[in-house]
Amino acid sequence: MARERISQADEWQTWAQRYDIEGGVRTFESGLTVKVFFGALFVGLLMMPGSIYLSYVSGQSGAAAAPWVAVILFTELARRSFTTARRQELYMLLSLTGAAVGSGMQYRSFIWYAYFINTPQAISYEIADKIPAWVVPAGDSVGVLSRNLLHPDWLLPIGVYLVGKFLGTLRVVSGQYILFRLTADLERLPYPMAPITAQGATALAETTGKQETWRWQVFSIGSMAGLIWGFIYIGVPALTGVMMSQPIQILKIPWIDFTQSIEGFAPTGVFALRTDFGQMLFGFVLPFPVVMSEFVTAMLSQFVLNPYILYPQEILHQWHPGLDVRATNLYNGLDFWRSYDIGKTFSLGLVGMAASVPMLFKLRKTQKKAGQRGSLATPPNRGDFPLWLMGILWLIGMGGFVWLIHWMVPNFPLSFLLGFAFLYTPINSYITARTFGVLGRDLFEIPYLHEITFILSRYEEIDIWFAPLPDEDYGAGTQGWRVLELTGTTFTSNLAATLLIMPILIISGILVQHFIWQIAPIPSAQYPYVQMMWPINATNECLMKTSLRDGNSEIIQAIRGDYVAAGFTSSLAIYGLLWVLKYPSMWYYGIIGGIGADPGSMVARLLGAIIGRFYMIKRFGLKRWFMFNPVLAAGFACGVGLIGMGTVAIALVSKAVIVKPF
Amino acid sequence: MEKLASIIIVIGTILWLISVLFLGGRWQWQMFAALVLTVGIFIAHFWEELSEGKDKKTPRDDN
After folding, report:
1. Could you list the residue range(s) of the whole structural domain that residue A306 is in?
2. Most CB within 10 Å of its CB: which of A263, A457, A542, A586?
3. CA distances from A429 to A158, A290, A612 (A)
4. Is residue A42 part of a domain?
């Protein structure tokens, strides 16, 4: 039977309808209330410092679990106070907690460079005296030697950081918003991973109401599964690590490597079975054609293309028997796949452009109602902003950022900065926004972009390695706006909350870093993780920052034009042929994701997709199952996060009280 | 237009295969094939958008 042609936007819109909470009709409310603000204060003043401290001591910040813990505490308080918590409030708390915990990590660079500037490595590599004053004060300054972040020596680094933070907020908010309007409103991309967060907040909000619906039951099932899995995967190794020198791993983390077992019949092929079966949950959520085509293409890459075409042609020439998955991937990447992937990712950008440019042309012809595909008109009361205003804010933010970098490194060619800021960043962000809209993940990344830039610019000073470059990506953040929409939270309230919490986090973050630094030097015995890792990191940083000194880099030499062209053209051919044969474009994203990838990393996701498609849909019905599975995944993340935080805490307490004889 | 787009895409694919199999995979020939494919893909999407709206059925949700 002949296939019916379906346009990309129609295909994705159909997919999005499955997840559209309340059937696409929703009301928007503010999520910012006094309760939420105090909840966020709690997060800012208690959880973020705890997270920073844990990261120094154990390398585990507990960041993934923190937002869920805060929300559960909040809902329990609401229940015991006989009040209710709306899902808008809970989602706001969830996102603010995530932002707070994440932002705490940003201040680590002050402490890191205060340590790095006085390391023997930095001195022997002749870097120490070349670190700019806007990164860290001099190694013999009072601010560094007395471990005092509040000393005037730190005014310049902290001042530059704060200016960067302000300009960054302008750019990120406006850039993400413009892309969201383009990909979610105009192109109607489904953002398949967004409902996980949205449904999680909804489920917990219902527990504070009079009636508990199916959402809480499904969330609980997911949480219990997460607790059990988290205990097996994280808990057992963490707890046994307290008592034994070699922790017990029921399932080897992160994978079981079969690469050497298959080299007899598939030389240069890799197969490392990823043991994180939590990935099954993603298989439930992602489109079945994407998961299936990705796996099949990955199998063909590793069991046909690599061993029987690329290896005999001596394109993959560095591999030799006995290598494990990491070494095989490294050599195969240098020989061929790194170049091919660059071309492949550029094809994604071109395909996105081909799909969206005609839509823009059509938009000029026809005015459409809000909610229809191909329309930039907004739903009522969503709290939208004028696009022109966001455009101006982005220009101010990016213009100021380029000026700041130019001030930091005045001899670095300005044309490179302008090219990154106004050409690369918009294109890169748009491509990522599209891949997040379709797949819920990023596919577009040019490896070693900074190194390539430094070589092309012929700039040889070391200071450029410490400066930020305006090569940004707002694509992943567009998903957050989709979640706001799904939870019915007004955009204005989210922006207001972000701006209100920011000064609190900036001040509390610096104070806490100062306090923790005052307790003991970092690294020192008080902070065992950084004591072990930071010297190695210092060596690596020295190697990286001096890698281009003699103008020679193995990575740069590995990029070959004919292989880049092969990646670009073959990907376009695949897309074109799928269009000619009237296959859904989702197959293209699956195939492109799978080419050259390790199929072992996809087994759990494939299992989830197969169970979902051939059992769960039959058991529960399509509509119900697709309502269930984001809630299930959110509950699972909560369960794993809780068990992770709990076991790491037990391990830390035990290590603090048990004196080891070494 | 649909047939034109299909023909250009098929020609672009054949050109790419020829460039890889018989012309040593030189990037210049491959990029020429990419140019042909790009033209075909753009025509395809322009045709899709401009021909839309005439008795269009909702796609079957069979994913």
Report:
1. 8-30+107-192+251-620
2. A586
3. 28, 22, 32
4. no
